[in-house]
């Protein structure tokens, strides 16, 4: 009886279009700093500085990279204005999936979910390859011959455990790692600027005229991958303290911090190597470029710490992406677009249990498959999967910018013109250019032959997944209209608690109760 009353009361409390669910993520756990740690850790600034910046210098051969990072950070900041404006009105761990559902319709929302799941999963799985290679290299320098797969599996085990525990614990782990990471980046930057190759600090690479060179678009395509992960802040919205303010501040800070670190470090590297030598040095030293520039000027212990933090930077990104993909699965399970078991959380930690386990199992299978087939963990596991996963995230950002426009056209009074109209339109235009350039140049980024089927297969694969998602939503619309109605609508903090039935009264009490009910009804009828 009380169960039925409780369900009816909960149904009355729920506004039209909102969910009533049987489990929820642990709320009120994360402050601004913790959410920033997740966002910046996903972008993995030290990994980008040591790996991506050197690669762009070496491959593209243009010294405009510091400016390119500033421009990309500006574009993403413009995108973030409308993105976080929408986050103030929609609190949902489904993030892109939920926003596109509200702005462009439920079918396109599910299409976005079908793109998001493999994109984030590939981003995380690919990073295991890089972690394994870097960790094996560090151990090799100490005289320990350990295969990359053993190092990857060690990281996998820790991530699998942390993914099942309290989200604020993961936030604290990321905080410690990220603060140490930022500290060593600042020290390295200061050392390189204080010791310029040409004897004087040059700002020639900051000349805006360099942005007019034809290589800039290719550099932007590569640079934007270094920011992938900042949007994970919104995935944590249901677990944040005061999400309408926390997520907005954290997302802006994550973009600005990642962009500033990458731009300053790219400039410092060009100063340390010399503007005329940076490309040749990058091609020769590759990922050792930063260490080769600072090693003559710092104690050996600082180089060792740098290598260790390079490894922990990758680990932090692994943890951040694991949190993101498991919460996407939770959001879909809660709304029964995945089996309902994915919508349950751990009763003590509030972690999305099934989503976390699923991602851990997929990661384990991928790591072992690459190991058994003797595939190159750096190129074929890390390189291919993270680039293709980054393409998926870029597609989601592009779709979300369109959804923000549509949402605020439908609800013009929720935000001012700048946040609700102007910045989303600018972001959509700029992201359209970058997405087009990325799809066209994906084969070059991956180093594929011109006639390789994979030049277009990955983009086509995402298109197929999106069509399948939209088709599945259309089927659900007619077969399960109650499920269709709540697609992307989230929880809005309402949870249904089942109360136990009270014990049945003694038989004498039942008899008295029946007699009293009969007598009372007889009196009423009279």
From TrEMBL:
Where is the region Disordered? 502-526
Predominant localisation class: membrane
Kindly give the membrane topology term recorded for this protein: Multi-pass membrane protein
Q: What cellular component GO annotations does this protein have? A: membrane
Alphabetical UniProt keywords: Membrane, Transmembrane, Transmembrane helix
Amino acid permease/ SLC12A domain boundaries: 35-438
Which residue ranges run through the membrane?
Answer: 35-60, 66-87, 108-140, 146-167, 174-196, 216-238, 250-269, 301-328, 349-372, 384-409, 421-441, 453-475
Give any Pfam family that matches: AA_permease
Q: Where is the composition biased (Polar residues)?
A: 515-526
Q: What is the protein named? A: Amino acid transporter
């Amino acid at each position: 009886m009380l169960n039925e009353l409780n369900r009816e009361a909960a149904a009355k409390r729920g506004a039209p279009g909102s969910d009533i669910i049987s489990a929820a993520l642990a709320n009120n756990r994360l402050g601004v700093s913790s959410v920033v740690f997740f966002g910046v850790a996903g972008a993995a600034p030290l990994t980008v500085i040591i790996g991506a910046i050197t690669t762009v210098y070496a491959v593209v051969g243009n010294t405009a990279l510091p400016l390119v990072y500033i421009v990309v950070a500006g574009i993403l900041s413009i995108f973030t204005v409308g993105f976080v404006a929408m986050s103030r009105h929609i609190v949902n761990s489904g993030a892109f999936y939920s926003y596109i559902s509200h702005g462009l319709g439920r079918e396109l929302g599910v299409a976005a979910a079908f793109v998001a799941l493999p994109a984030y999963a590939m981003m995380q799985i690919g990073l295991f390859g890089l972690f394994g290679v870097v960790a094996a290299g560090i151990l090799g320098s100490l005289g320990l011959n350990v295969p990359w797969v053993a190092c990857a599996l060690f990281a996998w085990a820790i991530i699998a455990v942390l993914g099942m525990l309290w989200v604020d614990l993961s936030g604290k782990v990321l905080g410690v790692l990220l603060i140490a990471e930022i500290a060593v980046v600042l020290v390295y930057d200061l050392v390189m600027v204080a010791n310029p190759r040409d004897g004087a600090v040059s700002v020639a690479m900051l000349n805006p005229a360099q942005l007019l060179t034809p290589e800039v678009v290719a550099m932007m395509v590569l640079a934007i991958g270094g920011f992938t992960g900042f949007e994970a802040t919104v995935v944590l919205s249901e677990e944040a303290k005061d999400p309408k303010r926390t997520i907005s501040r954290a997302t802006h800070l994550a973009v600005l911090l990642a962009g500033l670190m990458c731009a300053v470090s790219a400039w410092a590297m060009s100063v340390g190597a010399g503007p005329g030598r940076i490309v040749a040095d990058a091609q020769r030293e590759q990922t050792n470029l930063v260490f080769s520039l600072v090693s003559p000027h710092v104690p050996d212990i600082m180089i060792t710490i740098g290598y260790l933090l390079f490894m922990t930077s990758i680990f932090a990104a692994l943890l951040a992406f694991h949190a993101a993909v498991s919460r996407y699965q939770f959001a879909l399970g809660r709304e029964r677009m995945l089996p309902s078991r994915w919508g349950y959380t751990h009763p003590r930690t509030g972690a999305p249990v099934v989503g976390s386990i699923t991602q851990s199992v997929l990661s384990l299978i991928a790591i072992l498959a690459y190991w058994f087939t003797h595939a190159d963990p750096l190129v074929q596991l890390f390189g291919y999967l993270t680039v293709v996963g980054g393409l998926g995230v870029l597609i989601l950002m592009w779709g979300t910018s369109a959804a923000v426009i549509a949402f605020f056209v439908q609800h013009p009074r929720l935000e001012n013109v700048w946040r609700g109209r102007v910045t989303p339109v600018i972001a959509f235009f700029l992201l359209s250019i970058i997405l087009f350039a990325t799809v066209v140049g994906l084969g070059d980024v991956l180093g594929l032959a011109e006639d390789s089927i994979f030049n277009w297969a990955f983009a086509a694969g995402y298109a197929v997944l999106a069509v399948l998602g939209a088709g599945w939503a259309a089927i659900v619309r007619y077969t399960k209209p109650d499920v269709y109605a709540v697609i992307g609508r989230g929880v809005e903090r309402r949870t249904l608690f089942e109360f136990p039935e009270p014990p049945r009264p003694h038989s004498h009490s039942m008899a008295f109760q029946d007699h009293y009910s009969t007598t009372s009804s007889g009196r009423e009828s009279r």
